[in-house]
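Private note to self, pasted from the team thread so I don't lose it. Backbone tokens:
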């Protein structure tokens, strides 16, 4: 089914590079406008179990609701009731309560496995008529009068009126289109995680516990059904160079020695460790588009997980860019309008995520004493900023002026 208002500028064909969050979502909105849309994902369909889990905030969930996917995605994840922060001795030093967010923002944050979200969105895009291809690796781009051509590793060439780069932090589209763009910056943190069954862990279902350990940061979400979804952040880059999974597990356990004992129990109970990943972000790019090519999501403004907004910002981007293409007379005008509308918001979130990540660094005794006493104040300020982010709404119906 197509929208009553189709894209201006005579657009008929679109190529979307990237099958994560932004890619299939923008493809669904383009199909609503009647564009023949192809989604290219470099990884094979069988490789869809990458990554750990993420949070979908109310501002992102409202985009999924616009597509009629809100209830389905929520059913595939679990509602987060809030976050409790503890120190290395296990004492609670602060709380952020989400239980009134459905009334305040229209939805509560949903925790979901990353692979499950990607599969669900790609499936939904295919059901709406997008040509979703796995194992389709982009190697080159050519601009011709009135079109852009994607050249694939297989030798196939796909011509389109617009090409959208939704291929993440290490975007191939960005490298080809904006070769002078700054490289992603290392935030100083590495990330590992996993899924475990640990009945003895003192975790309340639906709540996330964030622990400022003596030498590393640990987060755990108690999913309904008894599974624990967890992540571990450390600034020790040597963790990235440990190839043997059991040596890596031993490294995590050593970093949490002296922290609450349930952390070690969860790590030991995890069948497969996920990661490690060095966390990077993109604080700003000089521009997001060139010619008939535009970047969105992490390809344009990658944020570390420390703000819990990466996926939700990508969802917002998808709706806004499709709306701009619907309402502008030419792709270049649509891309300029999109960047103008989005840049300030997303770069503020990237900065906040970097600040949040800095707070995870190990603290000495004096700094830890100060943090434990000041955290309730910092959380109140953070909750106010979070509320402004969660309350943000991008609408499909109004015309982009």
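Design output:
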């Amino acid at each position: 089914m197509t929208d009553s208002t189709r894209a201006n500028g005579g657009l008929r064909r679109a190529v979307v590079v990237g099958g994560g969050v932004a890619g299939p979502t923008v493809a669904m909105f383009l199909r609503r406008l009647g564009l023949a849309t192809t989604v290219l994902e470099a990884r094979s369909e069988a490789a869809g179990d990458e990554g750990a889990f993420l949070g979908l905030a109310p501002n992102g969930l409202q985009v999924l609701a616009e597509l009629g996917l809100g209830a389905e995605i929520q059913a595939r994840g679990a509602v987060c009731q809030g976050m409790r922060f503890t120190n290395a001795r296990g004492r609670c030093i602060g709380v952020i309560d989400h239980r009134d967010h459905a009334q305040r923002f229209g939805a509560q944050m949903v925790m979901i496995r990353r692979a499950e979200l990607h599969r669900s969105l790609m499936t939904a895009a295919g059901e709406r008529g997008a040509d979703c291809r796995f194992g389709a690796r982009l190697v080159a781009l050519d601009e011709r009068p009135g079109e852009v051509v994607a050249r694939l590793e297989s030798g196939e060439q796909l011509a389109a009126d617009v090409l959208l780069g939704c291929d993440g932090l290490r975007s191939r589209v960005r490298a080809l289109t904006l070769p002078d763009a700054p490289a992603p910056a290392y935030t100083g943190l590495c990330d590992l995680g996993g899924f475990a069954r640990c009945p003895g862990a003192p975790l309340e279902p639906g709540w996330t516990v964030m622990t400022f350990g003596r030498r590393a940061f640990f987060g755990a979400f108690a999913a309904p059904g008894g599974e624990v979804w967890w992540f571990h952040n450390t600034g020790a880059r040597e963790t990235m160079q440990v190839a043997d999974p059991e040596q890596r597990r031993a490294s995590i356990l050593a970093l949490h020695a002296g922290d609450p004992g349930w952390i070690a129990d969860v790590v030991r109970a995890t069948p497969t460790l996920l990661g490690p990943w060095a966390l990077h972000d993109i604080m700003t790019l000089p521009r997001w588009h060139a010619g008939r090519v535009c970047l969105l999501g992490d390809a344009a403004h990658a944020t570390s997980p420390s703000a819990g907004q990466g996926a939700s910002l990508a969802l917002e981007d998808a709706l806004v860019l499709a709306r701009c293409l619907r309402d502008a007379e030419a792709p270049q005008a649509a891309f300029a309008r999109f960047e103008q509308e989005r840049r300030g918001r997303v770069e503020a979130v990237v900065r906040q995520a970097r600040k949040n990540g800095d707070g995870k660094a190990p603290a000495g005794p004096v700094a830890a004493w100060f943090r434990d006493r000041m955290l309730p104040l910092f959380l109140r300020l953070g909750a106010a900023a979070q509320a402004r982010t969660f309350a943000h709404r991008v609408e499909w119906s109004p015309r982009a002026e």
